[in-house]
């Protein structure tokens, strides 16, 4: 934008210079054809300068359009990247949450199985103790019966 205003200012300054040249030429010119030559020169100079300025303006416009296009593409890339990052972040947190839930379920399941195994172990120990008592009772009874038989 700064370049455009500088370009417009330069054009206006150049026009002022040309009008100054015309006024000086008209004061010092005679009717012997000098005026016609200076007018031709002025017209040529003005058309060349205008053409150069126009070409420069076109080049600047094309550069601006190109830069605008690059900026749009960069913004699109940035927006797409931001969306991808957001999607990946959401996916990451969903996966992490799922893994935590699975771990909690597995831990609860393992604790329940452990509790059942402890209960089964206690039951088996109780059964073993009962069997030992029965065995001891049987031995005592057998010993008493053999002792009674031997005494007789």
From TrEMBL:
Indicate the transmembrane segments per the record: none
One of its GO biological process terms is:
exocytosis
State the GO CC annotations: Golgi to plasma membrane transport vesicle
Which keywords, in A-to-Z order, does the entry hold?
Coiled coil
Coiled-coil stretches are 50-91
A Gene Ontology molecular-function term?
A: guanyl-nucleotide exchange factor activity
Reply yes or no: does the keyword Zinc apply. no
User: Its domain of life?
Assistant: Eukaryota
Q: GDP/GTP exchange factor Sec2 N-terminal domain spans which residues?
A: 4-137
Which family is this protein grouped under?
Answer: Belongs to the SEC2 family.
What's the protein called, per UniProt?
A: GDP/GTP exchange factor Sec2 N-terminal domain-containing protein
Q: Which organism is it from?
A: Rotaria sordida
